[in-house]
Amino acid sequence: MKNFNTFGIMIDCSRNAVMKPDELKKFIAIIAKMGYNQVQLYMEETYEVDNEEYFGYLRGRYTQEELKELDDYCYGLGVELVPCIQTLAHMNAAVRWPKYASITDIDDILLVDDERTYNLIENIMSTLRKCFRTDKIHIGMDEAHNLGKGRFLDRNGLQNRTDILLRHLKRVCELTKKYDFKPMMWSDMFYRLASGGAYYGKIKNFSPEIKAMIPEELTLVYWDYYHADKKTYTDMIKGHKSLTNKVMFAGGAWKWSGFAPHNEFSLRTTKAAISACIDSGIKDAFITCWGDNGAETSMYAILPSLCYAACLANGINLMTDIKEKFKEWTGYNFDDFMLLDLPDKLIKTKGIVNPSKYGLYNDCFMGIFDTTVSDKDSKKYASFARKLKNAACRTGEFSYLFDTLSKLCSVMQYKVDIGVRTRKAYETKDMNTIDALIADYKKMIKRTEDFYKTFKIQWYRENKPHGFDVQDIRLGGLIMRMKSCMERLIELRDGKIDRIPELEEKILTFRADKADFNNWIKTASANVI
Q1: Partners of 260 in the beta sheet?
Q2: Structure pTM?
């Protein structure tokens, strides 16, 4: 890359979607054409570790042989494969097992100062050393907000959380050094310590005590996927450089808000971020590709964002040139792939909203999000479905991405306002309207079943089967709930029941522009799941 020594991506393999090794190779081959020279595999515990049989158990973890094979493949392409792991928090899938629950402090945070914790981390380091050529390792250590407040507190009493964290960091860095790794970690820990809890914001002066906390061998990774103004990035980079001369930047290609990507927003944040990095002399950066709450979005859906970032990093700034590069590198049209954003394009916003997910799971009778619905939304989704279906005819091997989201929009054509229409029909007790509504429920259910089938094809094509059990539960439960609601409407129409209590409760206002809800538990029901 013209402006960077290292320019990579981070692939989330821990939010249920563990990409198949062969599919991962295919994806890496594409981004290698774009000039990316590093891939970080974010694996909280989705990898095999010696002497830790429950680590990644039933999660589709990568075997050591798979990691070695991937490392060899990347090396042949001139791409450095780097393990991006966790050594403190974000261990929620591991700590469910009794072996690791006993070394859990609180939430998903490992128990500091317990030798069993360091035995685990040493097993991790020794295993990864066998699987990766690189001398780099990302040790994570972010967002351990309740550190020292659980089992640690019971054992040791109240202690300064900074001291606890630094003792742990020192032990982890000793282990990285033992196994010839140079560590990097997310930087928010140090910023939060300096600011009293906030991460983003201009800090004029860091105390000598904060600076002294950073081990000499450690690289700080400043992560920011949210801002579209260059100044925020410039100020944050300046702050990082006042802490250490080892700074790496991590941006984001948004694929972690549901079934659809947010390429348009990613382009805006990436433009500001890359420009600030270049002007500020940052020479190492990567683009994160998270998969929060189920990893429904395909990695291929963010190819426009990755192409855009690669072009900017290489000094290519004109959109006409960037689109030509996309065609050269993928064989397809940039504008077609940007259509994958459509399912979440109901409203104009400068931020992120994901109505195609929270609206999909919004209950037909107890619609938490019904006040966000516009009378134009159904027609918009019908239009989105047609555009995506047409694009599927032009996108060859990636047509299945467009087919999946086209069918999602076909569902949403009925689903988006079904709750509003159901409540209105119930209030009028117009049986002809209720009868017509029942017909729409049948269409909606059939389209949801069709969407499920195409989404299943997409998942099994790209990922290991582990993790789709969650989608079976969510979408299967959704279909059953749709049927249940329809059956009660039929009973009402036929006079078998005379009321539906849920439809008599007033739905309270919810702001559509604040509805970035990517948590199935909180969107599917107001009741306890």
Answers
A1: none
A2: 0.97
